């Protein structure tokens, strides 16, 4: 099992210094290219210099609030990988998109924008986060999560390769906590979790880590 903690930028060095060596640290974002006057942005090169191995890209908040397009996220994933970072790439649909029946079209388009830019999936983890379930207390049922994860794996097999489909980890995020992670982890195509608010509660971390870390790749 692999555990990755992703604090805000200002706490990256502190978190890295306090955690055990087997628990890795991820940034919550990084810039899309090298050099230039991009005041306030953090480059992939900066993360490498800090020995931060992971970065989260394409989170729904950045897509919605900062208007990051699928193509822009794909570019960011490509550049981060080129600098040696490992990427947790977030995808997911809104409530309106789910209710209109376009969930798979949305997540497939988001995944395609990444697949079009990269040659290797060795250092990519896909994080399926239905936007309607993030921080709302609403959780995709195990069946709903499994359905999307299975379809994503099928999409990878048909559009990238059978090997990539089999080996790429697809984790679930969206109001995951100690009370629902066991059943979600039991689904065949759910390889772990991207945990948000519950990761700030000591009781939740203790419950998930000690009970289920052997069953899944817990991504925080």
Automatic annotation (TrEMBL):
Organism domain of life: Eukaryota
This protein's record includes keyword Isomerase: yes
Pathways per UniProt: Carbohydrate biosynthesis
One term of GO molecular function: triose-phosphate isomerase activity
Gene3D superfamilies attached to this UniProt entry: Aldolase class I
Subunit-level organization: Homodimer.
NCBIfam families, sorted: tim (TIGR00419)
Protein name listed in UniProt: Triosephosphate isomerase
């Amino acid at each position: 099992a692999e555990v990755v903690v992703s604090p805000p930028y200002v706490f990256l060095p502190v978190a890295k210094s306090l955690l055990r060596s087997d628990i890795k640290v991820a940034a919550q974002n990084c810039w899309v290219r090298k050099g230039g006057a991009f005041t306030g942005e953090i480059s992939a090169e900066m993360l490498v210099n800090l020995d931060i191995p992971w970065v989260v890209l394409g989170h729904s908040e950045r897509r919605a609030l900062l208007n990051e397009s699928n193509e822009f996220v794909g570019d960011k994933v490509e550049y981060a990988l080129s600098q040696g970072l490992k990427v947790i790439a977030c995808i997911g649909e809104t409530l309106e998109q789910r209710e209109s029946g376009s969930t798979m079209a949305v997540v497939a388009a988001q995944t395609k924008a990444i697949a079009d830019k990269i040659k290797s999936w060795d250092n990519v983890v896909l994080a399926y986060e239905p936007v309607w379930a993030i921080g709302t207390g609403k959780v995709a049922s195990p069946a709903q999560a499994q359905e999307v994860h299975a379809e994503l794996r099928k999409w990878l097999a048909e559009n990238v390769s059978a090997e990539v489909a089999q080996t790429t980890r697809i984790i679930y995020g969206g109001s995951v906590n100690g009370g629902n992670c066991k059943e979600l982890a039991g689904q065949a195509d759910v390889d772990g979790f991207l945990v948000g608010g519950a990761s700030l509660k000591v009781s939740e971390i203790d419950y998930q880590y000690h009970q289920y870390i052997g069953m899944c790749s817990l991504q925080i």
